[in-house]
Amino acid sequence: MTRYRYMPTHVGTAAHGCPAERSSAIASRRARSVFLPAVAVLATILATSCSQQSASAPVPKPTAFGAAIVESSGGKQIAQTGSLLPQPVVVQVNDKQGAAVAGALVEFAAAPSVTFDSPNALTDSSGQVTSNVSLGGMAGRYQLSASTFDKSHKKVELKIEAIALGYQQTLGRHLNDQYCERCHNPESTVERVSNYDNLEVKPHPFTEGDTLNKLSDADLAAIISHGGSALNKSALMPAWGNTLSKSDVQALISYIRAVSDPPSRSAGPVYAKH
Amino acid sequence: MKEKFTSLWQRLFGDSVRAFGVVSLIFLASLAIAPAKNFFSEWRHYQHGYLRMVRNRSDANTLQRHFQGGIQQIWLPELGVVDRCTSCHVGLKEASLTDVPTQPFRTHPVIPHKLDQFGCTVCHRGQGAATTVAEAHNSTLAWEQPILPAKYIESSCGECHRGPLPGTPQLNQGRNLLARQGCAHCHTVKLPDGTTMKATDDPPSLSHVADKTTREWIYAWLKDPQAYASTSTMPNFKLTDDDARDMSAFLIANSTPLPGDTATLSARPSSDPAAGASLYGESFCASCHAVQNAAGNMVGGDVGPELTRGGNKVKPEWLQAWLRNPRNYDPRTGMPHYRFNDPQIATLSGFLLAKTDSDLLANVHLEAATPEQIAHGKRLVSDYGCASCHEIAGIKKPENFAPELSHIGSKPVTQLIFLPGMPHTLPDYIAGKIKQPRTFSPGLKMPQYAFTPAQIDSLTTALLALNDRSNTLPPSLAVATTPESDYQPAGKAGKLMTDLACFSCHRINGHGGDMAPDLTWEGSSVQREWLVQFFKNPGTLRPSLIRRMPRFNLNDAEVNELTDYIMTVYQTPAIDRDSMPLSGYSQGQVELGKQLFYGKYSCQGCHIVDTKTDKGYIGPTLTHVGSRLTAAWIYQWMKNPQSLRPGTAEPNRGMSDDEARALTAFLISQKGGARQEAAKK
User: Fold this and answer.
1) Taking Cα atoms as reference points, which of B190, B172, B213 lies closest to residue B471?
2) Looking at the partner chain, which of A26, A139, A168 has a beta carbon nearest the beta carbon of B133?
């Protein structure tokens, strides 16, 4: 892990770091290989002189302690790689009786490429902390953790998942909005009434990993391109092969894989804090 | 000390043979520096790491076979790109390495371009020729192009792609915002295709503003536009009380009355909220205008201004004149001329005037303005560049009021002044400037916008795409976009269509909005009689839509004028409207079509033909499609819907001619019998 200092995460944040810190990282590695301890000493000096600048915001002192931390809103969101989640993540600290606790310290953490606009803050009068979250630069699942300490200074942690979409999945999401979602998503909004309830044979929501993960990419591509009846499934699923290109179908499949729950194995790595 | 040095010198260079030996050794050692430097280079270290990593994988043989040692380079002379990134990023093209969580060895995500043809720095920026991480990823004194953070990566798509792309929502949104938020009113933005960006918002003229509103409202609006309407695109100029007082004084004093507006109230605004709400709903005002509901959510569209506190703003006389014919006050408005009668105007104006917020103007008390205040207000109005956006009688639109943004995405970091504590990169500078312009210098004129963080990222993305590469791109590489046409229908019907603001919602020949169907080929599509009835009483074709065609209270002459024009002019060359009959299909054909409809193609999933059994909610209801569409249109639609309406959700089923003809026969036989049954229920 430590060998490769330039992980994907640094791609997004490299410009923000301290140059001396970076050169020291390189220098210290060279130091090992060329056996020049003096360089290591120099690097340490550089690193310490820099650490003052790159120190994170001061952690506020909690005035109260809770027993549990729960998600109020902002879980399971989808955003493009590197970008902000559409809604902020809101968590609430409760005491043993389930009442909100104000003034408890909540710390957010995730893979280093994920940024929080308030990584640590005290809960407000309604016991909540709100933070805007930017995901890392690689597509995949990101595990965000929100933690607080109880009275005995034991850490109580809440895990929240967010999904980052790369280019292909973003294109797939666009196609999903245009062609698929009206039937495959049972939830209605004011702007978009779902057709799910009107269908005799219910389509699979794309989050339905239990079913969809069992189908291979080739199976999914066949159903999308040739329609349900060609594969002995419901004819209510039309054939899209004349409407969507092959790369469109691939994009849709990569989107389906990205949002499936439980996660599809082919969706790539999970980014959690180290 | 000196003796020691002398003895050392003696020992090393005492006699010529010894000196020769020592010098040779030093020479050899210095010769060894170059290969050593090469041997211990960073890229070699990463390549060793890569080989160590793949050794334990099941596909080790394939990966090792693909591996090429040494410095790798992608050279694209046309773009001036020399990218050695693949010296360390070894696995970019290996499809199996998607599960590697860390760079530099993960597969590149799927994009529509080949790495060999586009290189790396075209999209990611950074220094392609560098062979160390620090020099490649970060800016140095000599090379100042750092890696572009992932959240702005779509800006690079925008260097070549000049129009919207389905896979780049952030870039598309940013470009829309640049035009819609009126950035181009003050900033000149010359686009790489040679055109100049036009602002798509249309800030109202202030030459007759006293007809419309009061000085108190102008004062409150200038102080905080978002307090009146949170969705307003008017920025906050952070004016002092005195400045807002003087500017409002000038704007009122400068305003001249328009004949139509100063009329006394023609009808007393009615106070029947139920009737008002129902007329507001029937007229589909909410398709364009939003109102904040009790829960704080915006209900309605964002084409016209928000009406939550409209009663605080407008004078009743003006509102009634506006509802009677908005084009009197503003000939360019996107608001249709509804042809309301007096009782309707009374009802609707009463309903809208009741939308007030008692807090908004509660603390605004202005004394009568003095000539000095008015003169000072005029100076401020010129200084702040109000006339860049608004038409103001007596004040010329300033030229080059704000810095040009045509090359902002390549602006050298050395030319930027950063705030303390701010990362020294161009994207951070642009985003910071959009977020809080005045923090950079209190004297700056750029006002405070109410952008969300996501909007700031989008705008930054769009601005970063305006760079040297996009401006000097070989024309063969640029992907042009179809610009909005300036199509205007001719003659009497054209005037009528402008009056009804058809183009606010409909698109025809590449001009107009996207809220309602494209009407370019409407004449080939519908039957004349249906169109006449639709104008008189627009029914609902799509039960799930919340935005619908309003009724414009047209008279028969107007309906005929419009219908004739549409039926004659908006024809596609691909369809001969009269090539297929509207009736007389054989029973067998109709029956076959029915079987295809309910069986093979299961159209009932999205459409309703029989209201008793069908429930499909996506496409239009087809209960009376036989009296709405022409048979030739239905046939062509069955064969290839995208050829008639690009982007329509109706899939192309690849039907045979016979199937398409049978379905046409079945659909054209649906003349609306079922609709009457449904009405009875």
Assistant:
1) B190
2) A26
Q: In 3D, which of B50, B45, B193 has the Cα closest to residue B131?
A: B45
Q: Has the ipTM of the complex gone over 0.90? A: no
CATH of the domain at B656: 1.10.760.10
Distance (Å, rounded) from C-alpha B430 to C-alpha B447?
15
Separation of alpha carbons A29 and B48, rounded Å: 14
* Rounded Cα–Cα distance for residues B477 and B119 (Å): 14
- Distance, CA of B584 to CA of A232 (rounded, Å): 36
Averaged pLDDT of chain B = 90
Q: Which residues, listed in sequence order, are joined to residue A200 by a DSSP beta bridge?
A: none
Nearest C-alpha of chain B: how many angstroms from A175? Answer: 8
Residues B232 and B347 both lie in one domain: yes
Would you tell me which CATH number, out of the four given (1.10.150.120, 1.10.238.10, 1.10.760.10, 3.40.190.10), belongs to the domain A167-268? Answer: 1.10.760.10
How far apart CA B34 and CA B28 sit, in angstroms, is 11
Distance CA(B631)–CA(B582), nearest Å, equals 6
Residue range A186-197, pLDDT digits in tens: 998 877 888 999
Q: Is A269 exposed, middle or buried (0-12, 13-18, 19+ CB in 10 A)?
A: middle
Contact state of B602 with A30 under an 8 Å Cβ cutoff: no
Domain that holds residue B457: 159-200+402-472
Q: What percent of chain A has pLDDT over 90?
A: 54
Q: Could you give the number of structural domains in chain B?
A: 5
pLDDT of residue A22: 41
Last residue of a domain, one of B569, B594, B617: B569
Q: Which two tokens stand for residue B180?
A: 């819609």
The residue assigned the tokens 């104000």 is A102
Q: Is residue B29 in a domain?
A: no
Statement to judge: residues B142 and B164 lie in one domain? no
Task: Check CB contact under 8 Å for A198 and B615.
Answer: yes
Residue of B111, B133, B152 to mutate, testing the A interface (most A Cβ within 10 Å of its Cβ): B133
Structure tokens at B425: 């990169």
- For residues B460 and B467, give the distance between their C-alpha atoms in angstroms, rounded to a whole number: 12
Find out whether A91 and A68 touch, Cβ atoms under 8 Å.
no
Look up the CATH architecture of domain A68-165: Sandwich (2.60)
Q: Which of B120, B153, B173, B456 to mutate to test the interface with A (most CBs of A within 10 A)?
A: B153
- Residues B657 and B541 grouped into a single domain: no
User: How far apart (Å, rounded) are the C-alpha atoms in residues B16 and A255?
Assistant: 77
Task: Name the stretches of chain B with pLDDT < 50.
Answer: 674-681
Q: Name chain B contacts of A239, Cβ cutoff 8 Å.
A: 651, 653-654
CB B177 within 8 A of CB B459: yes
Pair (B253, B338) in one structural domain = yes
Q: Do B654 and A242 touch (CB under 8 A)?
A: yes
Strand partners of residue A142: A162, A271
Give B600's strand partners: none
- Beta partners for B526? B629
pLDDT score recorded for residue B262: 57
- The residue assigned the tokens 């391109």 is A225
CB pairs under 8 A between A and B: 179
- Name the closest residue on chain A to residue B46, using Cα atoms: A4
Asked if A269 and B100 come within 8 Å (Cβ–Cβ), the reply is: yes
CB contact under 8 A, B652 and A8: no
According to the model, what pLDDT value does residue B544 have? Answer: 65
What's the confidence (pLDDT) of residue B139? 75
Contact A91, A114 (CB under 8 A): no
CB nearest to A171's CB, from B167, B546, B600: B167
Predicted TM-score (pTM) of this structure? 0.87
Backbone phi, then psi, for B631, in 5-degree steps? -65, -40
Q: Is A78 on the interface with B (CB under 8 A)?
A: no
Cα distance between residue B611 and residue B617, in whole Å:
11
Structure tokens at B622: 């087809």
